[in-house]
Write a structure and sequence with these properties.
The structure holds 2 protein chains of 2 kinds. In chain A, the strands form 2 sheets. Chain A has a 10-stranded mixed beta sheet, with helices on both faces. Chain A has a 4-stranded antiparallel beta sheet with strand order 1-2-3-6, sandwiched between helices. Chain A contains 8 helices and 14 strands. Chain A starts with a strand and ends in a 13-residue tail after the last strand. Chain A is an alpha+beta fold. In chain A, a hairpin with a 3-residue loop joins strand 4 and strand 5. Chain B is of the alpha+beta class. A 10-stranded mixed beta sheet of chain B has the order 4-5-7-14-8-13-12-11-10-9, sandwiched between helices. In chain B, strand 4 and strand 5 form a beta hairpin. The longest helix of chain B has 18 residues. Chain B starts with a strand and ends in a 13-residue tail after the last strand. Classes of the chains: A alpha+beta, B alpha+beta. At the A-B interface, helix 3, helix 4, strand 8, helix 5 and strand 14 of A face helix 3, strand 8, helix 5 and strand 14 of B.
Chain lengths: ~325, ~325
């Protein structure tokens, strides 16, 4: 059967919407918490039109769309190619080998343009897709989880948890800075690269505005009036097809080293979940880095279960020049 | 659990864990060598390993809970790399993948201090818990170590001129090796091609001279178009059953692919292995080599072990949060 890879474009949106909807239906059979609406091809098509704007490929088998793979190319602290959950899908009748073939066809352009760090978001229940990406050199980078809003198990510390506004920015930033330093430790090992002064000012200003916005909830746990832990809840990321309906996103959680293992995290979680209940949410989602040993213990112990994974492959950058032409 | 640097005095206890793990591996993969179920047989391998890299030993009250030891090398494509070989890791009964995660957390900073950002681990494919633990540490698959018996090779054969190459064909064989290096740079392999060392060429010439090696080559229109290099396994290793010949290099130029050249060469290699008293053939291939994986698996090679890799962003060397 003829298999052809062509650049992904608007002309593929409709067929891609149908493929994504079919794949989502399968994922939802395994994980019913996923949102039902993406089983509709028209809804899936709209999401693709919004999120699949970067370079990618469409796989055509005998002229019919068998799958597609599209990355968003982002430039932040480094150049990264990100495949969102709506950025890759194959027809349920296709062999997962198609993911490998699509990646081979699409990634050449990403690498040629200096995007050596590749990220792929997949449903955690889609074992075939995960297996295919694993065989392409991708390891698990982060885990996206959900739970309901009932009280989380475990002892809570007797700490004062305050919902704070922009006037607590200094405390918030101190804790965020602690989180960034923690994420640089082994085995997470994410470089702590500071933006320029101008960028920092812009980030801080945006943060202050968000702290003053009622849609966001910033909680800080204080021990002896000193900030010991931080939790930020916010509206869900739009068009992220692994997000369940009526769920709040727990964006950041961090407890200072000296205050860990004493129930500060549990106190923050329960305060956050109570706020989410009051706001009319029904579920809570949270992401954490897969190699984060403490988080990997904490979140499952609080009843969070995986919905999705983000996988990472870092290409050896010497591929930019070591292509064997002079060998 | 207390995790400390691995030292010579930990070898006997580590050998016991290794022998236990190997017995479990062998329970799932009976073709593996039996001798490493005996801790005494494992001890020399650990003694040999220890000076080659870094290691950690994890202790609980009951004794050694697990260990990791790396082989650090700087010769692999001129990049520093740490590989934990099959004999470089084991955990005690009752331990789980979390023990691997904790040991790696303790080990990684020592590797980073040496400028080693390319971390690899060789695991039995059948040890799903270990594979899952390393996957959760952002390790992805890099290579399969696979093997097959000497049953006949099925598939279409090209009507092809196959010859055994000797040292006088070094230039032609080197040309195919260079072609393989270039092929490995293509997506989705993206393996940099850095073969600028003249020593490699000399090594090839010596390998071509050795009577125990066989470089089977296929010709098309009078030109060498494909090669398969088979040789004895260098030493008894944990993933190669006794009597295993090693298929070291295989490559076909583009025009010689899909035409039965590979199948014809493999058939010749299998016959050579049989004639030379071997019972099996093993090889390794990049899991992200789409053509290679399809070819080898299609010809009955079954993965026994897998090399996983994590490439750490090297900026962690200076952006580790201590300079804020």
């Amino acid at each position: 059967m003829n298999l052809q890879f062509v650049p992904f474009g608007r002309e593929h949106y409709e067929a891609a919407g149908a493929v994504l909807a079919d794949m989502h239906r399968l994922n939802r059979k395994r994980e019913p918490r996923l949102a039902e609406r993406y089983e509709e091809a028209t809804v899936a098509r709209e999401v693709i039109a919004k999120t699949c704007t970067g370079p990618g490929v469409a796989a055509l088998r005998n002229g019919r769309l068998a799958g597609y793979l599209v990355a968003l190319l982002e430039v932040d602290m480094e150049r990264v190619a990100v495949v969102l959950p709506s950025g890759a899908a194959i027809d349920p009748g296709e062999d997962p080998e198609l993911y490998r073939q699509m990646y081979a066809a699409a990634a050449e352009r990403w690498v040629r343009n200096g995007y050596f760090a590749h990220y792929v978001h997949v449903a955690s229940s889609d074992r075939d897709a995960i297996r295919a990406w694993f065989s392409l050199g991708f390891g698990r980078y982060s885990i996206y989880n959900w739970r309901d809003l009932s009280r989380a198990p475990g002892l809570e510390a007797e700490v004062e948890v305050r919902r704070v506004g922009a006037d607590a920015f200094d405390d918030e930033e101190k804790l965020r800075s602690g989180l960034r330093r923690y994420n640089a430790t082994s085995p997470i090992l994410h470089p702590l690269v500071h933006p320029s002064r101008g960028q920092i000012d812009a980030i801080f200003e945006a943060e202050r505005q968000q702290m003053a916005d009622d849609k966001y909830a910033y909680f800080i746990a204080y021990r002896a009036d000193e900030p010991a832990g931080l939790m930020i809840l916010e509206p869900p990321r739009p068009d992220y097809v692994l997000t369940p309906d009526r769920s709040v996103y727990l964006h950041i959680a961090f407890v200072e080293d000296a205050a860990r293992s004493g129930g500060v995290g549990a106190a923050l979680v329960n305060r956050g979940l109570a706020w989410a209940r009051e706001e009319g949410y029904e579920l809570c989602t949270v992401g954490y880095f897969s190699p984060n040993l403490l988080a990997a213990r904490f979140w499952p112990s609080k009843g969070f279960r995986p919905l999705g994974y983000c996988l990472e492959r870092r290409i050896d950058e010497r591929i930019a020049w070591a292509r064997g032409e002079d060998a | 659990m207390e995790i400390i640097p691995f030292a010579a005095e930990h070898i006997p206890a580590a050998a016991a864990l290794l022998a236990r793990r190997h017995a479990a591996d062998r329970g799932r993969e009976p073709a593996l060598p039996e001798r490493f179920e005996d801790p005494e047989e494992c001890i020399p391998f650990l003694q040999d390993l220890l000076p080659k890299g870094c290691g950690v030993a994890a202790f609980r009250r009951q004794g050694l809970a697990g260990y990791l030891i790396t082989v650090n090398d700087a010769a692999h494509h001129a990049q520093r790399r740490a590989l934990i070989p099959l004999e470089g890791h084991a955990i005690a009964a009752g331990e789980d993948g979390e023990t691997y995660r904790e040991m790696y957390a303790a080990l990684a900073p020592a590797l980073l201090r040496l400028g080693i950002f390319d971390h690899q681990v060789l695991l039995p494919v059948s040890d799903r818990n270990a594979v899952e633990a390393w996957f959760s540490l952002t390790f992805g698959e890099r290579m399969h170590v696979a093997g097959r018996g000497l049953e006949s090779v099925k598939g279409e054969l090209a009507d092809v001129d196959i010859r055994l190459a000797g040292p006088e064909q070094v230039e032609e064989v080197w040309g195919l090796f260079a072609g393989l290096g270039r092929y490995n740079t293509t997506p989705p392999l993206f393996v940099p091609d850095i073969y600028e060392d003249e020593a490699w060429r000399k090594e090839l010439e010596e390998d071509l001279r050795r009577p125990e090696n066989a470089f089977w080559t296929a010709y098309e229109d009078g030109e060498m178009a494909a090669v398969m290099y088979i040789r004895p396994t260098a030493r008894m290793v944990f993933d190669r059953p006794p009597g295993t010949a090693n298929l070291s290099i295989a490559f076909a130029r583009k025009k010689a692919r899909h035409g039965g050249f590979g199948t014809a060469l493999l058939r010749r290699c299998v016959a050579w292995a049989r004639d030379n008293g071997y019972q099996r053939i093993a090889l390794d291939y990049f899991t992200y080599n789409l053509l290679g994986a399809r070819f080898w698996q299609g010809h009955g090679f079954r993965p026994v072990a897998t090399i996983l890799q994590r490439r750490i962003d090297p900026r962690i060397a200076w952006a580790d949060g201590t300079n804020e």
